Amino acid sequence: MIEVVNPAWLSMVVDSGRYGYADIGVPPSPALDRYSYTALCRLLGYAAGMPALEVMGHDFSLKASIDVSCAITGAWVTAFVEGVPVAPWRVFRVKAGSTIRVKEVTEGLRYYIGFSGIIDAAKVAGSYTTNLECRFGGYSGRPFLKGDRIALKDVRDAGERAIAGSLIPSMKAPHILRIIDGEEERYFSAEALKSLFEKDGDPWYKVTTKTNRTGIRLEGKPLEFKKGTEQSIISEGILPGVVQVPGGGQPIIVLYERTIGGYARIGHVIRADRDLLAHLKPLDMVRFQRVTRGEAEGLWNEKAEQYYNMLP
Amino acid sequence: MNWARYGEEGIRIVFGNAVSADVHEKVRRYYFFLKSLRLQEIIDIIPSFTTCIIYFNDQLTDFDTLTAHLQERERELPETDVPAPAAHTIPVMYGGQYGPDMEFVCSYAGLAPDEIIEIHAGTVYTVFAVGFMPGFPYMGALDKRLFVPRLETPRLKVNEGSVGIAQFQTGIYSFESPGGWRIIGKTDRRLFDHRQEPYSLMKIGDQVRFVPV
Question: Where would I find the H helices in B74-160?
């Protein structure tokens, strides 16, 4: 049993996502940083799909009532077990009665914690992940509160694995997000497109506080539509990473909690950069860079190689 | 049908450029056809007004391979059995505390609340899409007299069961959420239940009639 002593700002159960039901509006709600989540599974000897904790904020703490192995990946943090520092991206042992504390987050936003036992969580439509808006899956469909008790099944010894330092991603702001063609790119003025994709100078966009698992709202120089252009589209299916622009011209990066959208799409954040979206936090500066499909594929292959290299 | 890449792991099939019963029927047929193929490569399908989005597993396929495969199998489409749309009757409490935008809709349309109710409940709607949130039905076509713009600033909280209208559509909020549609009533029918399949009360193509209570 693991007791939640301090749930920090937001902590919840996630997994690799709830797929197969987008036709009835069920979004995937997965671990937002898939790379870090996958690394966590590998460290603890599980296939991707096992439930894990996704946490935002400092001072997260848990108390273990059993001997268990544990690991932390994702955002850069300082963590302690009974006051002794433990390294993230590496399995560490926790003795019964000890407290695990993540004191500070120094880079990035979301971090992942897993154990050498399966978290007892509600499986809904094939997945353990929490749909916060609809309150199902995970731990009673809600974020953790102080005093919650997490049951672990099949606890075993996880061995001493670590992820090589060269495979730990940087999450330092400012962020460059690379994007490929959007369906409504031609709705925007030449000037808007030029300034958005200029290699060097402005515009930088600021991540606003209206940012959550549904989407990241940015604020900067408004992206102007061409005169006389429709500013909304017939609603249709959307996929994670799409950059939508409502009439006001401030872009929104769609994350993993919506299946249909009705705003003009100026681009799609490339797959290789999508895990980074989990770490964009209010006030971070972001800019977009246009890449070709070929470049996007090359960048993904590099990232896929990292996934491959994480294997034990 | 027009096939295009959609991001890196998607296919966007466009069946027409405007909302119409014809175009939508093509989307619906194709969606059920796709489902019947039970292809492992397809993770999710999102059918809506004019398009079908396919999200595929790129470990198993790529855009060109999957597109070619689907285009080759298209000849099976005419023989595919498509489920008949279900008919739903949804009881609605219109106006007052249940429909905070009824007054706006009345003044915008120049009609009395009773007339709004009569018009809204006097049409059988088609479910064009289910989504944005689990179980939310996008329905149409609304009578032209009820066309209203969305709220300029969306509400932070729309109650579960709220019946809204926006432009040519009407919909039901299956969960409490932020929202920009004009709310004219509320139903206590549950639209999505994660505890039992089928999770969603409605599916694409279903026919819906509102009954004032």
Answer: 102-109, 113-120
Query: Do residues B94 and B60 share a domain?
Result: no
Length of chain B: 213
Residue B161 and residue B197 in one domain: yes
Q: Per-domain residue ranges for chain A?
A: 2-167, 175-309
Q: What is the predicted pLDDT for the residue at B153?
A: 82
Question: For the residues B63-71, what does the mean pLDDT come to?
Answer: 97
Report the complex ipTM: 0.96
CATH number assigned to the domain with residue range A175-309, chosen from the 4 options 2.40.100.10, 2.40.50.140, 3.55.50.30, 2.60.40.1930? 2.40.100.10
| Amino acid (1-letter code) at residue B42 | I
Q: Judge if B131 and B184 occupy the same domain.
A: yes
The CATH number of residue B142's host domain is 2.40.100.10
Between strands B137-140 and B155-158, the pairing is unpaired
Decide: helix, strand or coil at residue A301: helix
Burial class (CB in 10 A: 0-12, 13-18, 19+), B59: exposed
Instruction: Quote the DSSP letter at residue A95.
Output: -
- 8 Å CB contact of A259 and B199: no
**CA pair distance A175, A277, nearest whole angstrom:** 9
Which of helix, strand or coil describes residue B17? Answer: coil
Other CB atoms within a 10 A radius of the CB of residue A117 amount to 22
Evaluated on CA atoms A175, A172, A17, A303, the torsion sign reads positive
Residue B68: domain span: 2-79
- For A99, the token pair is 């407290």
Mutate to test the interface with B, among A259, A269, A271, A273 (most CBs of B within 10 A): A259
Return the beta strands (E) in A215-259 as ranges. Answer: 215-219, 232-237, 242-245, 252-254
pLDDT means over runs of 10, chain A (312 residues): 97 98 98 97 94 98 97 98 97 97 98 97 97 97 98 92 94 94 92 76 86 94 88 91 92 96 95 97 94 96 91 67
Q: Is the minimum CB–CB distance between A19 and chain B shorter than 8 Å? A: yes
Residues B96 and B187 in one domain: yes
For residue A297, list chain B residues with Cβ-Cβ distance below 8 A: 8
CB contact under 8 A, B6 and A239: yes
Helices (H), chain A: 34-43, 190-197, 271-274, 293-309
Contact residues on chain B for A125, CB-CB shorter than 8 A: 194, 199
**Is the CB of B48 less than 8 angstroms away from the CB of A260?**
yes
Whether B114 and B16 map to the same domain: the answer is no
| Chain B contact for A239 (CB, 8 A cutoff) | yes
Contacts of A230 in chain B (CB under 8 A): none
**Distance (Å) from the C-alpha of residue A4 to the closest C-alpha of chain B?**
26
Matching residue, tokens 């460059």: A176
